[in-house]
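$ run holo --ligand "prephenic acid" --emit tokens
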Amino acid sequence: MTMTSTSTAQQTTATAAATATATERTGARTESAAELIGGARDRIDALDDRIIGLVQERMAVSAVIQEARIGSGGRRVNLSREMEVLGHFRDALGKPGTALAMTLLELCRGRI
Ligand SMILES: O=C(O)C(=O)C[C@]1(C(=O)O)C=C[C@@H](O)C=C1
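-- output --
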């Protein structure tokens, strides 16, 4: 055997190492599944960046409303409006939607 040739045993070992790497990276047992998962994770990361940007935009708009209300002599919190927001998310996403909306409201106006 020359120094540059690769035995079947070495190839098998290399393939096993590649599969182990895919499993370590993604939990998948095949390289093709790991590639699909890697691409989908990139899409999720991009979606999460957009969601974070939308949450930050919502916080800024909410602050404008709260400052106008407080500046006019009113209170920061408007519970009837918060019930509408909670209902909107619950109708769209069910019970976890309510929890998500509560977290959004907490981010936008702090804890009551
Ligand atoms: O819609 C309002 O009046 C707001 O002040 C915005 C907002 C919200 O972030 O959705 C924040 C605080 C209020 O308690 C209710 C709702």
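-- notes --
The first helix runs from residue 8 to 26.
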